[in-house]
């Protein structure tokens, strides 16, 4: 079935290509003496194989030889990739940058924070469209203010980071994110107003905007200038992988909790119950919806734990501000 929702990306992509052609300047071409073909192939094979299996979520059948072979192949490929990157003179991803403690810590915090982010950006659209019956456009309008809040607060947090360091900026952001996520759990029901959800998501956006930029900047500031390009490439790769894994984990959490909640509640209903009568299908539908909401609340609660873990990790960061001479 054709999904016209993806068509909006076509004109945006065309505009992006045209603007890039006009605005971006050519840089000198650098010849690569020894391209890391083995690293490229092993990383692609490992990541694709593992994400393919994990993408099945709670329906993974480990008795299926295909899944076992793919997972084993993926793990071995990534092990080979790590060994290759640590020994290659011109690695695809310079993993040696992870020896810098501050950079490694910032990447770990960002990964955990990415999972916490999914509590709103992944769960809420499912709830609003599948259970509350909002259209994609209406859902987008509900979520839009939170995106504006993130975009507005990022430069603000960057300026504050330059003045007072990372912790005084990130910790209040984490607090806002955790509190808003906690309150958001209570809005996963059929009675919560769209405005109340929008306000809580906006508060989450402010918290994310305060936290994300200083964490990333503090990590990059610890990297020597000669390694910044390699650290940036590694950071982007880790961010993409953590995002994909976060979605997979969140989907699995929701599906497992949904299955458990539905089975637990449905076993109380039988055709022989005099109160059921001819309404069995209607009652089971209500149970399904209630179990789905409970699963989404559970997923957001787990994301709150991720916020707490991220907050604790922040205390190990050094308040190294950006040098004014840079």
Automatic annotation (TrEMBL):
One of its GO terms (molecular function) is transmembrane transporter activity. Pfam families: MFS_1. InterPro entries: EmrB-like, MFS, MFS_trans_sf. The keyword Transcription does not apply. Signal peptide: none annotated. GO terms for cellular component: plasma membrane. PANTHER family: MAJOR FACILITATOR SUPERFAMILY MULTIDRUG TRANSPORTER MFSC. This is Drug resistance transporter, EmrB/QacA subfamily. It comes from Peptoclostridium litorale DSM 5388.
